[in-house]
Structure formats: structure tokens, C-alpha cells
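The protein record filed here:
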Amino acid sequence: LPLAKGGACALAIDLRDNPGGTLDSVLQIAALFMRDSDTLLTVRTRFDETSITKEYFDKHPEHEVKHLGALKECRAVLVINGESASASEILASALHDWGHRVVGTRSYGKGVGQTDYGLADGGRFLLTTFEFLAGNKKTLIHDVGVIPDYTVGDTRTNVVDAQLEKAIELLTSN
């Protein structure tokens, strides 16, 4: 990635009002920041746990990530709010666990996933069957949310965006 090759790298990642997305997408993005020893995510069911690590990606080519660790030397500040949910919380929580800062307000707190079952009549049935624990510390997201290092109210309706300004301040200071 050209961004990481130029030396110093600092990113403000705005996840406000992001309801999430696919698990595969968040794995691709978070893996850019992974070190070889990191756990990105643990998926826990009633019966077992699966940790998403470099070794997991090596053993599961169907989840191949491009540029694993390409941004591991970059600093990031993640901006979240109460509408940041699901996959965006996985990204914020994992990167927070790896030492990146989080600014804004507590996120939504959706750290579970559903399995989609087909019914005989053609209908669908979604059943919550697993929960996500983020980062090396296996941080619980569900019903807790991601708690920012710096709580800053959302002022985007005004001329100034205080949350984004705080993120930029953190990135430009040592």
C-alpha cells in the first residue's frame, strides 16, 4: 500500500452513524493494522470459540486477506457515536485494543451475529447464534459498546466538528 510506504502514517477513521457491514469486510480492514501476534476477533458460540489471527488466515484461504499488517506502523484515531454498530464496533474495539485511540461517544453495543435458516415454505428464520469478542483482550461489545478514550459530543450540526477535530489533534501531537 503506497500510504504505508511513505514513512509516517496517521489516519482518522470516521465510523459515526455506521451501522456495520459484512464480517468479511471488517476482517479485511482490521487485518491491515494487525501485527503477527494479534487476535483480531474471537467468535464465541454455545459450544466453542474461534480466534481470528494470522494463523487463522493462513489456514483458511476462503478468508484470504490482502496486505495483512500493511498499516501496522500507522497511528489511527477512530471516531464513533451511538449509531456505530456491529462491524464498525469490531473495527473500533480491535484497533483500540491494539493501542489506537477512540474519540466520540459510546457506540451502540451490537456484538452478536445471526445464522440464517431457510424454512420449508421459502421463508427465512434468523437466530442469534454467536457473539463477537474483539482484540487480544477479547473485549465484549454486546450491550456494552465501545467506550471512547476521549468522550466528545457530536457537534456536526454546528460549523465545527469537535469529534473530528479531537481526532486530528491526537494524530498531530506526540
Summary: The chain has five helices and nine strands. The beta strands are 10-14, 39-44, 49-53, 75-80, 101-104, 112-118, 124-134, 139-140, 150-151. The longest helix spans residues 87-97. Residues 24 and 63 are 7 Å apart (CA to CA).
